[in-house]
Amino acid sequence: MRQTPRPGAPASPAGPRLRAPQEPQAGSASTISRTTLPPRQHIRCYECQYEFNLTGRMTSTHCPKCRASLDLAGYTIDAECREILKTLGAIKITPRGIVSSSALVATDLDLAGKVSESTVEVFSLLTIQPGADFIRGNIRTPDVKLQPNAEMSLKNLAVFRNVEIYGTLRTHLYSTGTVTLRAGGALFGGVYGGHLVVEDGATLIGEVVIGPEGLARVEKAQTQAAMYQRDENSERVMVLSTAPAPATAAT
Ligand SMILES: [Zn+2]
Predict the structure, then answer these.
(1) CA 157 to ligand 1 center in whole angstroms
(2) Could you tell me the residue ranges of all domains in the chain?
(3) How far is it, in rounded angstroms, from Cα 187 to Cα 181?
(4) Residue 21 has pLDDT above 60, yes or no
Protein backbone atom coordinates (compact mmCIF):
# COMPACT_ATOMS: atom_id res chain seq x y z
CA MET A 1 0.00 0.00 0.00
CA ARG A 2 1.49 3.27 -1.07
CA GLN A 3 0.30 6.57 0.21
CA THR A 4 -0.17 9.32 -2.34
CA PRO A 5 0.05 12.90 -1.18
CA ARG A 6 -3.09 14.95 -1.38
CA PRO A 7 -3.07 17.63 -4.04
CA GLY A 8 -1.99 20.88 -2.46
CA ALA A 9 -0.51 19.12 0.51
CA PRO A 10 2.80 20.51 1.60
CA ALA A 11 5.85 18.54 0.65
CA SER A 12 7.05 16.12 3.26
CA PRO A 13 8.28 18.41 6.00
CA ALA A 14 10.72 15.91 7.36
CA GLY A 15 13.10 16.14 4.44
CA PRO A 16 14.93 12.99 3.54
CA ARG A 17 13.75 10.25 5.79
CA LEU A 18 14.75 6.69 6.14
CA ARG A 19 11.79 4.43 5.79
CA ALA A 20 12.12 0.80 6.43
CA PRO A 21 10.26 -1.50 4.07
CA GLN A 22 6.65 -2.14 5.03
CA GLU A 23 7.57 -5.60 6.19
CA PRO A 24 11.13 -5.50 7.37
CA GLN A 25 12.92 -8.78 7.08
CA ALA A 26 14.78 -10.30 9.95
CA GLY A 27 18.47 -9.56 9.69
CA SER A 28 17.92 -6.63 7.37
CA ALA A 29 20.74 -4.13 7.44
CA SER A 30 18.48 -1.10 7.66
CA THR A 31 19.12 1.31 10.50
CA ILE A 32 15.50 1.86 11.37
CA SER A 33 12.76 -0.70 11.45
CA ARG A 34 9.07 -0.13 11.92
CA THR A 35 6.87 -1.74 14.48
CA THR A 36 3.14 -1.77 14.81
CA LEU A 37 1.51 0.54 17.27
CA PRO A 38 -1.70 0.11 19.20
CA PRO A 39 -4.48 2.48 18.13
CA ARG A 40 -3.83 5.92 19.50
CA GLN A 41 -6.70 8.08 20.61
CA HIS A 42 -5.34 11.53 21.07
CA ILE A 43 -2.92 13.05 18.61
CA ARG A 44 -0.98 16.27 18.43
CA CYS A 45 0.31 17.34 15.02
CA TYR A 46 4.08 17.72 15.22
CA GLU A 47 4.05 20.43 12.57
CA CYS A 48 1.35 22.81 13.87
CA GLN A 49 0.58 21.42 17.37
CA TYR A 50 -3.12 20.98 16.50
CA GLU A 51 -4.71 18.28 18.65
CA PHE A 52 -7.29 15.81 17.42
CA ASN A 53 -8.63 12.32 17.99
CA LEU A 54 -8.04 9.32 15.80
CA THR A 55 -9.29 5.78 16.08
CA GLY A 56 -8.18 2.69 14.30
CA ARG A 57 -4.91 1.05 13.51
CA MET A 58 -3.17 3.20 10.92
CA THR A 59 0.44 3.91 10.10
CA SER A 60 -0.10 7.43 8.85
CA THR A 61 -2.70 10.17 8.59
CA HIS A 62 -3.05 13.81 7.69
CA CYS A 63 -3.42 16.68 10.08
CA PRO A 64 -6.95 18.04 9.58
CA LYS A 65 -5.68 21.56 10.15
CA CYS A 66 -2.35 21.99 8.34
CA ARG A 67 -2.68 18.89 6.10
CA ALA A 68 0.80 17.71 6.92
CA SER A 69 1.31 14.01 6.43
CA LEU A 70 1.77 12.46 9.86
CA ASP A 71 3.55 9.22 10.56
CA LEU A 72 2.01 7.06 13.26
CA ALA A 73 4.37 4.11 13.12
CA GLY A 74 6.81 3.04 15.77
CA TYR A 75 10.50 2.74 14.92
CA THR A 76 13.48 0.91 16.30
CA ILE A 77 16.96 2.33 15.75
CA ASP A 78 19.49 -0.46 16.00
CA ALA A 79 22.60 0.98 14.34
CA GLU A 80 24.11 4.37 13.56
CA CYS A 81 21.40 6.82 12.47
CA ARG A 82 21.88 10.25 10.93
CA GLU A 83 18.40 10.55 9.45
CA ILE A 84 15.63 12.93 10.38
CA LEU A 85 12.73 10.94 11.77
CA LYS A 86 9.36 12.31 12.84
CA THR A 87 6.56 10.14 14.13
CA LEU A 88 3.58 10.26 16.43
CA GLY A 89 4.50 6.75 17.46
CA ALA A 90 7.34 5.64 19.67
CA ILE A 91 11.04 5.42 18.83
CA LYS A 92 13.23 2.85 20.46
CA ILE A 93 17.01 3.23 20.43
CA THR A 94 18.62 -0.09 21.28
CA PRO A 95 22.03 -0.50 22.99
CA ARG A 96 23.52 -0.70 19.47
CA GLY A 97 21.69 2.40 18.30
CA ILE A 98 23.68 5.62 17.86
CA VAL A 99 21.90 8.82 16.93
CA SER A 100 24.23 11.61 15.84
CA SER A 101 23.81 14.78 13.78
CA SER A 102 20.15 13.91 13.60
CA ALA A 103 16.71 15.19 14.51
CA LEU A 104 14.05 12.99 16.04
CA VAL A 105 10.46 13.79 16.94
CA ALA A 106 8.33 11.17 18.68
CA THR A 107 5.59 10.79 21.25
CA ASP A 108 7.68 8.42 23.34
CA LEU A 109 11.35 7.51 23.25
CA ASP A 110 12.94 4.44 24.78
CA LEU A 111 16.68 5.05 25.08
CA ALA A 112 19.25 2.32 25.65
CA GLY A 113 21.79 3.66 23.15
CA LYS A 114 23.60 6.90 22.44
CA VAL A 115 22.44 10.37 21.38
CA SER A 116 24.88 13.14 20.50
CA GLU A 117 24.87 16.34 18.45
CA SER A 118 21.16 15.92 17.77
CA THR A 119 17.82 17.45 18.64
CA VAL A 120 15.32 15.03 20.09
CA GLU A 121 11.81 16.25 20.82
CA VAL A 122 9.71 13.87 22.92
CA PHE A 123 6.07 14.87 23.38
CA SER A 124 5.29 12.54 26.24
CA LEU A 125 7.68 10.07 27.84
CA LEU A 126 11.41 9.42 27.76
CA THR A 127 12.27 5.98 29.13
CA ILE A 128 15.89 5.63 30.18
CA GLN A 129 17.50 2.19 30.14
CA PRO A 130 20.82 1.08 31.63
CA GLY A 131 23.58 1.93 29.16
CA ALA A 132 21.90 5.06 27.79
CA ASP A 133 24.39 7.79 26.90
CA PHE A 134 23.24 11.28 25.96
CA ILE A 135 23.82 15.03 26.15
CA ARG A 136 21.19 16.72 28.31
CA GLY A 137 20.58 19.61 25.93
CA ASN A 138 19.97 17.22 23.02
CA ILE A 139 16.75 15.79 24.44
CA ARG A 140 13.61 17.63 25.47
CA THR A 141 10.86 15.68 27.22
CA PRO A 142 8.10 16.42 29.75
CA ASP A 143 8.07 13.01 31.48
CA VAL A 144 10.89 10.67 32.42
CA LYS A 145 10.95 7.05 33.49
CA LEU A 146 14.15 5.51 34.86
CA GLN A 147 14.15 1.76 34.38
CA PRO A 148 15.20 -0.87 36.94
CA ASN A 149 18.98 -1.36 37.25
CA ALA A 150 19.62 2.03 35.68
CA GLU A 151 21.70 4.45 37.72
CA MET A 152 21.69 8.04 36.54
CA SER A 153 23.18 11.28 37.91
CA LEU A 154 21.96 14.68 36.72
CA LYS A 155 24.19 17.54 37.82
CA ASN A 156 22.53 20.40 35.98
CA LEU A 157 19.05 21.55 36.93
CA ALA A 158 16.54 18.70 36.54
CA VAL A 159 13.02 20.02 35.90
CA PHE A 160 10.40 17.63 34.53
CA ARG A 161 6.64 17.01 34.70
CA ASN A 162 6.13 13.40 35.85
CA VAL A 163 9.05 11.26 36.91
CA GLU A 164 8.83 7.56 37.63
CA ILE A 165 11.86 5.95 39.23
CA TYR A 166 12.48 2.21 39.16
CA GLY A 167 16.26 2.58 39.15
CA THR A 168 18.62 4.89 41.05
CA LEU A 169 18.56 8.63 40.47
CA ARG A 170 21.06 11.08 41.93
CA THR A 171 19.91 14.66 41.53
CA HIS A 172 17.86 17.48 42.94
CA LEU A 173 14.62 16.77 41.17
CA TYR A 174 12.03 19.44 40.42
CA SER A 175 8.63 18.17 39.28
CA THR A 176 5.58 20.05 38.02
CA GLY A 177 3.57 16.80 38.12
CA THR A 178 4.10 13.68 40.20
CA VAL A 179 7.28 11.95 41.28
CA THR A 180 6.75 8.23 41.79
CA LEU A 181 9.45 6.26 43.54
CA ARG A 182 8.77 2.59 42.87
CA ALA A 183 9.65 -0.34 45.12
CA GLY A 184 13.35 -1.00 44.57
CA GLY A 185 13.90 2.49 43.21
CA ALA A 186 16.14 5.05 44.90
CA LEU A 187 16.47 8.82 44.88
CA PHE A 188 19.51 10.54 46.38
CA GLY A 189 19.61 14.33 46.50
CA GLY A 190 16.31 16.11 46.81
CA VAL A 191 12.78 16.28 45.48
CA TYR A 192 10.62 19.40 45.08
CA GLY A 193 7.09 19.65 43.78
CA GLY A 194 3.42 19.11 44.46
CA HIS A 195 3.05 15.34 44.44
CA LEU A 196 5.25 12.52 45.67
CA VAL A 197 4.46 8.82 45.81
CA VAL A 198 6.91 6.57 47.61
CA GLU A 199 6.22 2.86 47.38
CA ASP A 200 7.09 0.45 50.14
CA GLY A 201 10.62 -0.77 49.49
CA ALA A 202 11.87 2.43 47.87
CA THR A 203 14.83 4.47 49.11
CA LEU A 204 14.72 8.25 49.48
CA ILE A 205 17.63 10.15 50.96
CA GLY A 206 17.69 13.92 50.69
CA GLU A 207 15.64 17.02 51.08
CA VAL A 208 11.91 16.61 50.48
CA VAL A 209 9.82 19.70 49.87
CA ILE A 210 6.33 18.76 48.67
CA GLY A 211 3.33 21.10 48.64
CA PRO A 212 2.98 24.82 47.97
CA GLU A 213 6.56 25.51 49.09
CA GLY A 214 7.79 22.70 46.83
CA LEU A 215 5.88 24.11 43.86
CA ALA A 216 7.31 27.56 44.56
CA ARG A 217 10.80 26.04 44.37
CA VAL A 218 9.87 24.34 41.08
CA GLU A 219 8.72 27.63 39.64
CA LYS A 220 12.02 29.22 40.59
CA ALA A 221 13.92 26.31 39.06
CA GLN A 222 11.89 26.62 35.84
CA THR A 223 12.85 30.26 35.52
CA GLN A 224 16.47 29.33 36.03
CA ALA A 225 16.21 26.46 33.55
CA ALA A 226 14.65 28.77 30.94
CA MET A 227 17.75 30.89 31.10
CA TYR A 228 19.67 27.92 29.81
CA GLN A 229 19.39 27.84 26.05
CA ARG A 230 18.61 24.22 25.43
CA ASP A 231 21.76 23.55 23.45
CA GLU A 232 23.89 25.00 26.21
CA ASN A 233 23.19 22.13 28.56
CA SER A 234 26.16 20.08 27.49
CA GLU A 235 26.12 17.78 30.50
CA ARG A 236 26.85 14.26 29.35
CA VAL A 237 24.86 11.55 31.08
CA MET A 238 26.06 7.98 31.06
CA VAL A 239 23.55 5.68 32.66
CA LEU A 240 25.17 2.83 34.53
CA SER A 241 23.80 -0.64 34.94
CA THR A 242 23.45 -1.83 38.52
CA ALA A 243 22.28 -5.30 37.57
CA PRO A 244 24.02 -7.81 39.81
CA ALA A 245 26.72 -9.75 38.05
CA PRO A 246 25.65 -13.28 37.27
CA ALA A 247 26.49 -15.63 40.11
CA THR A 248 29.75 -17.48 39.63
CA ALA A 249 30.83 -20.73 41.17
CA ALA A 250 34.25 -19.27 42.04
CA THR A 251 33.79 -18.33 45.67
ZN1 LIG B 1 -0.92 20.20 11.69
Answers:
(1) 32
(2) 10-141, 152-241
(3) 8
(4) no
